[in-house]
Amino acid sequence: MKFGSYFLEEITPFESMLRRMDEVLEKRTTKFQELTLFRSGGFGKVLVLDKDVQSTERDEHVYHDTLVHPALLAHPNPKRVFIVGGGEGATLREALRHPTVEKVVMVDIDDELIEIAKELLPEWHQGAFDDPRSEVHAEDARAYLEQHDDTYDVIIVDLVDPVGEDSPARYLFTQEWYALLKSRLNEGGYVAMQAGMLLLTHHREHPVIHRTVREVFKHVRTYRTYIPGYFLQFGFILATDATDPLEIPAATYQQRLEERALKLKYLNAPLIAAQFVLPNDLIEAIEAETMVSTDAQPFWLDEEGNPHQTPL
Amino acid sequence: MKFGSYFLEEITPFESMLRRMDEVLEKRTTKFQELTLFRSGGFGKVLVLDKDVQSTERDEHVYHDTLVHPALLAHPNPKRVFIVGGGEGATLREALRHPTVEKVVMVDIDDELIEIAKELLPEWHQGAFDDPRSEVHAEDARAYLEQHDDTYDVIIVDLVDPVGEDSPARYLFTQEWYALLKSRLNEGGYVAMQAGMLLLTHHREHPVIHRTVREVFKHVRTYRTYIPGYFLQFGFILATDATDPLEIPAATYQQRLEERALKLKYLNAPLIAAQFVLPNDLIEAIEAETMVSTDAQPFWLDEEGNPHQTPL
Amino acid sequence: MKFGSYFLEEITPFESMLRRMDEVLEKRTTKFQELTLFRSGGFGKVLVLDKDVQSTERDEHVYHDTLVHPALLAHPNPKRVFIVGGGEGATLREALRHPTVEKVVMVDIDDELIEIAKELLPEWHQGAFDDPRSEVHAEDARAYLEQHDDTYDVIIVDLVDPVGEDSPARYLFTQEWYALLKSRLNEGGYVAMQAGMLLLTHHREHPVIHRTVREVFKHVRTYRTYIPGYFLQFGFILATDATDPLEIPAATYQQRLEERALKLKYLNAPLIAAQFVLPNDLIEAIEAETMVSTDAQPFWLDEEGNPHQTPL
Amino acid sequence: MKFGSYFLEEITPFESMLRRMDEVLEKRTTKFQELTLFRSGGFGKVLVLDKDVQSTERDEHVYHDTLVHPALLAHPNPKRVFIVGGGEGATLREALRHPTVEKVVMVDIDDELIEIAKELLPEWHQGAFDDPRSEVHAEDARAYLEQHDDTYDVIIVDLVDPVGEDSPARYLFTQEWYALLKSRLNEGGYVAMQAGMLLLTHHREHPVIHRTVREVFKHVRTYRTYIPGYFLQFGFILATDATDPLEIPAATYQQRLEERALKLKYLNAPLIAAQFVLPNDLIEAIEAETMVSTDAQPFWLDEEGNPHQTPL
């Protein structure tokens, strides 16, 4: 390790990473978070929000392909999409690539982050904020959905983990929140969500989320991918009362990719199906999980990664 | 990050990891490498050889399942197995679990490492060295194979990367070496190998290995998994002149798992098939690769991860 | 920085050090603290208590010479010495080198540390615990002095900093504590104490201690030295109602060194005098300081190094 | 240690420091070196050249007072001053404060560094480059002195260490170089130089420099100070054929400070004298040193800090 500038990230409770910064491009503080943008030899531009690397120029397609397209391709004709979070605009960008989509409503609490993204992160949004089908609101997503009863074909949830007993994000991981999402889905709709790192050696975050979502939806399926820029494997969840994702063959994804003339950098139809195939240890951990997060007892993660529920 | 003891690992040319050590259990130096064994909050015992984490108590099954079982399950009746490297004994252990196996010859250059493993790493070998079907030689694997013309049903290659222009490992990544392996395979045989981290943002190591193996074998297939203890996704290669791994259905793996009464901690039959499904960017990188490593121009990796071929 | 094992120490609120460990010799936990002993390329054995390097084999003489000898040489005939803290035995060792000394009473709260020191730190104590003039008590030094009215010619105080609002050490930095020390001094006696790192760019720790001691003693003099193993300059205080240390010429120290046949590795008579010569910025900071630590409002340091006084 | 941006500095061969960067102000690369300027919670602006912290806003007066004023105050009437190195302008600034000075010639090899300093480091130069008495040349100082036979009352040498067998700095640490400096001194002149960190536990850098200068000058005296921003104690050398610095009483320094109406932030007259008082271990190391660096066998430091001489 050579002398020079590094970003220190605590990627797990027991392992920290020093990322070499070739250049610090920006450092700004919003009401909600601190943004650092630097250039790295491996990943190009690296976007950090508070303590965590959020996205990198050279591998953001891995994350955004995996978050957005399985849900939109599971749906035969997605017209209206709702995005929770997703401030840097790449989730919006990918949703808009589906020609069936007529409207995407994105709600991110951090208005300053959205402004910064427009200015500094063109590689991420690529103009998506200016698409006439985009509607962006800077407010709390749960409050927004409680106050608006519009419904959607696909809802995509892209949130930070509920770390700390006081984390405001706790109320975006409860049974009641997932029920609210379900109530805003059209028939045949899907919810896709980022659902925590898969690191069973270290903690139970993903199993708790999975278990909680199961209280609300008929079909809840974990899928997963390795995100190079995080150096972690992440779990995602596709939830629906319509067709079980495991019943959708690769050929259906392939047909829809072709119909919609989509050429993705990372995902392809067989890989979407393959991402739902889980290893034995993860299957067992999900089946063994009993914790259900509720508004009365929302779960949160301590610094060691352990889940807790504090009664109000 | 709290004060205390850490192991610094340069996991890529641009990112380094500090791993918290709860306790340093051993530190020994052999003729070939330096061994550190420590206890970690996330992974239990962590084994480091020289600069790289090699294996951890709590996730070694991910790596060894993935390295060993696809090849042994692709073969309908594997009797004789050859292991290149694999000093800590877990590759041997997994190979011996197949009841069809009558003989496993393991050749690792580091005799001291094998002795240390016997003493300090019971969680890894679990007595495999004492199995009457095991035959362990401490010498250079290429020299051994050149001098012995015994043949095998499965060969498993578990080697360190050829980092540095002087790396002796360079001659275990060339076309001639793979041809030697092929000459020691029985008809219907398979070679499985660890084939470098998959980190396209950073380098071309895996594509070069894949391209070189293709010079020798009829069917060369990349498969992959995330290794939590490495915080990296690794590429593996299954090579054969017999049935193309992509033609083996999950049901065949399932049937052989049942016949052999194998219950694995990580892998299952659908997951083996799923591991061979690759993302678009990796498919493109493999197809675009042109570098072939030969004894005359063996490839090696510089500190930035770039592959080079130095004419002799 | 090469891969390998390191100790992470937060040496200031803004700068942390990674010290390469060639070998971890011991790690033990007592009721009061965690001890780590490792071997370093630069300093030999390095002793860490909790988060701070406490002493190193190759430079401990710098610290212990500076803490012990100025007080004992300032006194014409020191017979009875009291040591607060000093668990590893090197302060005791140096005090016993003065042939005038008939008795050294050492009180350190951590009995396990003393036992560990006897076993693992022979380079530090060099048998001092077995000297018939040594009397060692494992208890709280303030309680001990309150309960015993024996008096001494020299008192040496070697304590950790009062970091954190709950630090029990806070009561060993107050005006009342210094008054207690004074009440246990014979006429003509001296108190020497370690008095915090001198790092005016970062904080006011030393000026606050100096200011508080001034409430109690007629002559209070700061002296200082660089401690290589800490990578910091430390302040010490010599306090007395007898002869002002600034009035003691180097020739007096020299004469006493000769009378007592003392040959020190670090200190010499002119250097003792020179250590009392202070730079302008430190003189000004001491003069400007107004905070006096009392039992009613004991001072403590926050994580940024700022001093606070919390009313009870 | 919190997540965020840090500068990694290898301050010794065995210890590295991570300095928290509140903000990266600049990063530029010249023909000769890489400059990083960041803001730190403890030191304010921190200037790094290549791998080493060079100077900090809040403690640069410690270094520059110590490098410049002892020589200029040892001389009764310094008119002409020559500076080797000193690109950021603070050495120049301090020399110009002596009203006796009529001319300061500064030669630093890095013209871009001087331009950057003028623009970015006003806290350091404070306009010194614009003083009509200043004459700045961007070229190799040894070549300059060989080609110009002007002479000076005081020469100040502020150079980087000769690290590495190929270091061009090696030729600015040889007997022939010191003889060249002496040939450019007026009668009664003094040379002051930064002469390496004092860290006897780690290496012999300072003793070798001291021993080499002794081949050339009649009086060679080591003095020293702790530089907070380096976390190291540094050795300096004052060399002359005129009055031995040890023969100059503090009263003389005091008188000259008053005559020249100088009020320094760090140094005062008694402290200048005190800085020349050395501890026993350093005295012994200097006396024991036998290595003399010459143009034929210039000394250099390896990565472990050991001095070597390679015959041409």
Automatic annotation (TrEMBL), chains A, B, C, D:
InterPro entries, sorted: PABS (IPR030374), SAM-dependent_MTases_sf (IPR029063), Spermi_synthase (IPR001045), Spermidine_synt_N (IPR035246), Spermidine_synt_N_sf (IPR037163)
One Pfam entry name: Spermine_synt_N
Domain PABS: 4-241
Domain of life: Bacteria
TM ranges: none
Residues annotated as the enzyme's active site: D158
Pathway membership, UniProt: Amine and polyamine biosynthesis; spermidine biosynthesis; spermidine from putrescine: step 1/1
Protein EC: 2.5.1.16
Binding site residues for S-methyl-5'-thioadenosine: Q33, D108, D140, A141, P168
Catalytic reaction equation(s): S-adenosyl 3-(methylsulfanyl)propylamine + spermidine = thermospermine + S-methyl-5'-thioadenosine + H(+); S-adenosyl 3-(methylsulfanyl)propylamine + putrescine = S-methyl-5'-thioadenosine + spermidine + H(+)
GO biological process, one term: spermidine biosynthetic process
Key words, A-Z: Polyamine biosynthesis, Spermidine biosynthesis, Transferase
Alphabetized PANTHER family for the sequence: THERMOSPERMINE SYNTHASE ACAULIS5
Quaternary structure note: Homodimer or homotetramer.
Family designation: Belongs to the spermidine/spermine synthase family.
Protein name per UniProt: Polyamine aminopropyltransferase
Lineage of the species this protein comes from: Bacteria, Thermotogati, Deinococcota, Deinococci, Deinococcales
Encoding gene (name): speE
